[in-house]
Write a structure and sequence with these properties.
This protein has helices at about 5-20, 30-40, 110-115; strands at about 25-30, 45-50, 55-60, 60-65, 65, 70-75, 85, 100-105, 105-110, 120-125. By secondary structure, the protein is of the alpha+beta class. The chain has 2 domains: about 5-65, Ribosomal Protein S8, Chain: A, domain 1, CATH 3.30.1370; about 70-125, Dna Ligase, domain 1, CATH 3.30.1490. Strands 6, 7, 8, 9 and 10 form a 5-stranded antiparallel beta sheet that branches. The protein has a 3-stranded antiparallel beta sheet with strand order 1-3-2, with helices on one face. The chain is globular, with a radius of gyration of 14 Å. About 25% of the residues are buried. Keywords: Ribonucleoprotein, Ribosomal protein, RNA-binding, rRNA-binding. One of its GO terms (biological process) is translation. One of its GO terms (cellular component) is ribosome. Pfam families: Ribosomal_S8.
Length: about 130
């Protein structure tokens, strides 16, 4: 299957699976989607991430029958890339969410990129 924007597809699959109260969702695997999924796990938005035969298995996390991810937004798109410096990384929902960036050091969460003084492409926001 040809995907023009695998990150937007990943966010949509997670959002739709949470609304349907699914326990897990399968996402086509790539280095980028795997890195983003690991960041989501580190910050407690999903329970587990594993790579199974070219597909990422993401186990969703619920807090009292409500999804741990209350919202997400794709920022840099294939038709309009958004790059930010280390000082311009936005705070998401007044610090309650995370920004995910693609940097020369790899895919990083916004606060980590700011601490390392590195900017990059602003991929998405999760809250």
């Amino acid at each position: 299957m040809l995907l023009n924007d695998p990150i937007a597809d990943m966010l949509a699959r997670i959002r739709n699976a949470q609304k349907a109260l699914h326990k897990e969702v399968f996402i086509p695997a790539s280095k980028m989607t795997e890195s983003i999924s690991v960041i989501l796990k580190e910050h407690g938005f999903v329970s587990d991430v594993s790579n199974e035969e070219g597909k990422l298995r993401v186990v969703l996390k619920y807090l009292s029958s409500k999804g741990a991810i209350s919202g997400s937004r794709r920022l840099s798109k294939p038709g309009l890339r958004i790059y930010v410096g280390a000082k311009d990384i936005p705070a998401v929902q007044n610090g309650l969410g995370i920004a995910i960036l693609s940097t020369p050091q790899g895919v990083l969460e916004g606060r980590k990129a700011h601490a390392d003084n590195v900017g990059g492409e602003l991929l998405c926001e999760i809250w």
